[in-house]
Specification:
The chain has a single domain, classed as Aldolase class I (TIM Barrel), CATH 3.20.20.70. It contains 6 helices and 9 strands, in the order αββαβαβαββαβββα. It has helices at 4-11, 57-67, 80-88, 103-110, 157-161, 186-196; strands spanning 17-21, 47-52, 71-74, 92-97, 115-118, 146-148, 168-171, 178-180, 183-184. The longest helix is centred in the first third of the chain and has 11 residues, at 57-67. It starts with a helix and ends with a helix.
């Protein structure tokens, strides 16, 4: 999110999380010096998530402090030690990864992250808008809860509502609910959330 009016409209739908992208190569970049008032809009009941890609850890910590972020979402090649450093500061961590890397890779992060985010891999960093292969989750056995991302669109609410993957605790939606990069289609989101929460 980067537009105050659009963010206010979104928060009326009471999402659990809202994201702010601090990666300068993203079309949804909040900017080098975003207005701190933007981060006051969600209120305490909605968690503010800062999205980062291979940034120096001190930059991440400064952004958490400056903008009152509740969590960070890491979309690069951040290491276990990197995540452990943030967790040691009391910062909740979501690590984007691919379950095809194997249980060993996931388990190495499991003690230092709060959630995994499973998304469709692509060239570069961030979402591809392509559907994630949900079949990969059928027999996944990990202790760390995860969020599902990757090409989720308005027509997926019913099937997601009826899907029961062990560990799936939420979904991350973005490009298929946008009018333009960073600007959400509130009507699409409202219909989707109502259907998902039935």
């Amino acid at each position: 999110m980067k537009d105050p009016e659009n963010l206010e409209q979104l928060c009326e739908l009471a999402p659990e999380f809202v994201g702010f992208i601090f990666y300068s190569n993203s079309k949804r970049f909040v900017g080098g010096s975003p207005d701190p008032s933007l981060f006051q809009i969600p209120g305490p009941e909605i968690k503010k998530v800062g999205v980062f890609v291979n940034q120096k850890i001190q930059q991440v910590k400064r952004a958490v402090d400056a903008y009152g972020l509740d969590m960070v979402q890491l979309h690069g090649e951040e290491t276990v030690d990197y995540c452990r450093d943030l967790a040691g500061e009391g910062i909740q961590v979501i690590k984007a990864t691919d379950p095809r890397e194997g249980l060993g890779a996931l388990e190495s992060f499991s003690s230092v992250v709060d959630f995994f985010l499973f998304d469709s891999a692509g060239v570069g960093h961030g979402g591809t808008g392509r559907k994630f292969d949900w079949n990969l989750l059928q027999n996944l056995n990990i202790q760390t809860p995860y969020l599902l991302s990757g090409g989720i669109g308005p027509g997926d609410a019913e099937i997601l509502r009826r899907t029961h993957f062990t560990g799936l605790t939420g979904i991350d939606i973005n490009s298929r609910f946008e009018l333009s990069p960073g600007i959400k289609d509130i009507q699409k989101l409202r219909k989707f959330i109502i259907e998902l929460r039935k």
